[in-house]
Structures are given as C-alpha cells and as structure tokens.
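Q: Here's a chain of 295 amino acids. Please give me its 3D structure as tokens.
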Amino acid sequence: MTMSKYELAYKVTISGEEVGYISSKSQFEQLINNEILNPDEENVAYVDINVEPEYHITLADIDDTDEEKIFAKIKENSVTTYRLYAIAINGENKTYVNGKEEAEQAVADLKQEYEGKLTETEISVQELYTQNLETLATVEVASAVSAMEEELNVKVQYEEAKKAATLDGVYFATKPVSGNITSRFGAVESIRDHVHQGMDIAAPGGTPIVAAADGTVTFAGWSGGYGNLLIISHGNGIQTYYGHCSKLYASVGQTVSAGEKIAAVGTTGYSTGNHLHFEIRKNGKQVNPQKYVYK
C-alpha cells in the first residue's frame, strides 16, 4: 500500500474561505511581492491587494499544493495604479508620455520654440494617475512634441489674427453682417458731399446685425441721416456705429457680447438701398473699419 507523503505546509484562506495549500509561505509571499506588488511593468505607481490571505500551518500532501490557483485568486483581487505625465495647454491635457524628465524637457523645448509667439497660452506638465492605461494611451516624446506643435501653430495663427483685429484692447471678434462691401472708408462718391467715414455692407432687408465686439449700448434710436442708429461703447474710447437699420433689438444700457443680435439691416435715413453703415470710432474720430474687420 502506498502512503501519501505529508509535510508541513500552509492552508490559505481568503475572507474566511479556504482556497488551498502552499508548501512555503516565505516563497509564496516573495512571489506576490515580485509579480503583483512590484511588477516589472512601466509606469506602475502602486498596487492595492483588496484581499488579505491568511496562512495556517498544517500537515498536507505536498503533491496537492495549489500555488498557481491561490496566486491567481490574489492577482484577480489586485488593482494596479499607473503614473504617467500629460503635456497640457492651458491646463487641458493634450498628449501623454511615460517619463517625467522627458515630459519636462519636451515642455521646455516647446516654450523656447514659441517664446514671444503665444501670449495667451500656457504649456505645462501634469502628473496623472489612472487604473486604465487604455483611456490615457502614451506616445513617444517625438510624436507628442509633433502633435503639440500642430496645435500650437494653430494657436499662433489665432493669436496673430486676434491681435490684428484688436484696437486699444478691444477685440473685434466678428463681422456685424455678411454681405457685399459697396462703399469703403475714405471713398469719394457722387451720392455724398464728403469722404465716406465708415463702410457700407449690402444685405437683404431684415438680415440680422450682430455686435462686432463686447460692449454696452449707449444709443438706440433715430439719428438724422443714419436713420435708425445703434451705438455700442467698448471701453478705452472705442465705439461702433450701426446705421440705416430697419429694426433695433438692443436698448440703451444693455450689455451685449460679440456675435449677439442687436439690429436688422434696413434702408432708413439717407440711404439708397438695404445695407449696414458700419463705423469704428476712437475717441470720437472715425477710423478705417477694414483694419480690424472685413479684411
């Protein structure tokens, strides 16, 4: 008759449930430490094991140990948290890399490349933690820099366009109406006895007119040759005039935003057809609107 060989072993229980037997507690704990708690895996910040195995010394048949089964049980109850680094524009994460030093070097290089070109853009490194690497896929640093350059070049173009459309701190963000320019600033024409001090944009009657920049309405009513006129003050002595309107939707004292509907195209006052007469004034003096809009 063959006798089973019994030796000292450890019965392992998890949450009070018997899982199996191991032959060496120290070797098993070393396996957990090497393979679960300190894996040879990039970006691991730390690992939490959500179960606490308990070991009970006993006699067991060494041929019936269950190391692989117990290890799998513990591993499936572990959660890995990864650390990675985002390169961000104005606090918004754009791309991710593995190492802190390489992220900081990439940001330093980008700041040097775009120094003086971007005044409204901050490039920074953000340290992040995640338990799902698939949602925050990292890329090689060269690819990250290339992607950032594409976006930053767009921002450079935007800032240059915004600067060109800004007068004494007032940004003319939009055209007040879409249409054909029929008379430009400074034009000398037979229909008037003076040089044109604004610009005319032809559009069908009733076409919405929007504020060219943020500001406060300071006049809304009839004004001689302008017909129905609306004036917006934008601060720093800058005003915009919207003349010949068929309707005025904004009222005096109202704060309006760029792009907000304020009036409708018409042909009131001294006018030969439906159009918007648009002026920009600085400290009461007309300036050429096409320096800032309708370029």
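Q: Can you summarize the key feature?
A: The chain has three domains: 6-76, 83-164, 170-291.
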